[in-house]
Amino acid sequence: MKRIAESTVRRLSLYLSFLEGTEREGLQTISSDELAKLGGTTSAQVRKDLSLFGSFGKRGLGYSVPELSDKLREILGLGKEWHVCIIGAGKIGAALARYRGFAERGFNVTAVYDSDEAKIGKRWENLTVRPISELERDAGKQHFDIAVLATPGESTAAVVKQVVRAGIKAILNFAPVQLAVPTDVTVRNV
Amino acid sequence: MKRIAESTVRRLSLYLSFLEGTEREGLQTISSDELAKLGGTTSAQVRKDLSLFGSFGKRGLGYSVPELSDKLREILGLGKEWHVCIIGAGKIGAALARYRGFAERGFNVTAVYDSDEAKIGKRWENLTVRPISELERDAGKQHFDIAVLATPGESTAAVVKQVVRAGIKAILNFAPVQLAVPTDVTVRNV
DNA sequence: GTTAGTTTGTGAACTTATTCACAAGCACCA
DNA sequence: TGGTGCTTGTGAATAAGTTCACAAACTAAC
After folding, report:
1. A39 vs B189: CB contact, 8 Å cut-off?
2. H or E segment at A63?
3. Could you tell me which chain A residue has the CA closest to the CA of B34?
4. pLDDT tens for residues B64-84?
């Protein structure tokens, strides 16, 4: 499957929010042109964006609102449950673990790691902070879809190596440094 | 002056934050390559971005950190004071008026407007909510660089007309609708 | 069933953004 | 002064993203 541009993804999630509004109004179908007007783009753009993933519309009629919503949620990975580990039990890590919006979008934090002896063993909500040295072993037992890096800049490079070795393929990076990873690992900086 | 891409602006402000870090470390010069590594891009990209605004570097040597920082701040419009009015004295408007980061970046909120009789006349920090009908007249007396729209979706279209008529050339739009404006007015949706 | 009126899906054209590649400028040294 | 090693600035080449334009598919009306 080919790479999808970030701008496309942004638009798709915009379309989804419009569809949810349309759905509430009880409309059953919507045309690419209506969707384009709502999103401040063109109908050709809308159709191109959607056509990257398949043909969801009916010619002469438009798109079925509930059907397209479902497709978009699937494409955007909403509705799916993700297993996430947070690495770095400092302030940012704590804030993320508490953040409700995270769980609402299907991101389940199932483990927290740190390298600092003082933090290891502490209880966090319903989790216990574990030593980062155990990450690789743990990942053999439970699958992590995403690792969230909430480490201070200096220690990040070492941490990334361990995350990669643990076979985790997606990293959400809150550290203020650029990460070097193999090409099969995806990084998103925030 | 030609149009600058949004992605370029994002990178420039990223460069600036790296330069500020470098400045704190006491380094005097930096090369496009070092800047690129920090920002996760390429040296050619860095040079191209900067060359859109002039030649700030010295061949064989790199860029002077303090000098380039200053140039970037100037390009990004930081350091300049902006006169801003908020339109819509509801929850979002109130949050924005209180938000400190706004003032820190040189955005001075100098007036608040609403169309709701119940809200007009209320005091807000050191401002009084004024009727939107007075916007055009007020704009003749004091200059507004930016209008921040924090109105509910339905009333936004009417408000935009008044903003345009008042001669305000930049709109920061928090309303969940697409704005139609003349080409000499810039809109940024958030 | 035929016609008129829509709207999709998609190659092709076009536009914008990024990367390449190299001459030109500068510092330093002998 | 001339040579060496770096690094910028920038046209040209490439890649990525957007818009155009139209055949094909569908509905509805007669």
Report:
1. no
2. strand A62-64
3. A178
4. 999 999 999 999 999 899 999
Q: Which pLDDT score is estimated for A172?
A: 94
Length A44 CA → D26 C1' (Å):
19
Is the confidence at residue B11, as pLDDT, over 90? yes
**3-state SS, residue B61:** coil
Residue B187's closest chain A neighbor by CA? A40
How many residues in total does chain A contain? 190
Model pLDDT for residues B154-174, shown as the tens digit of each residue: 889 899 999 999 999 999 999
Spatial CA neighbour of B17 closest among B61, B53, B63, B65: B65
d(CA B183, CA B190): 19
The Cα A85–Cα A171 span in angstroms is 10
Query: Number of residue pairs across A and B with CB atoms under 8 Å?
Result: 11
pLDDT at B1: 66
Q: What was the pLDDT predicted at B180? A: 85
Task: Provide the positions of strand C that have an atom within 7 A of a protein CB.
Answer: 5-11, 16-21, 24-27
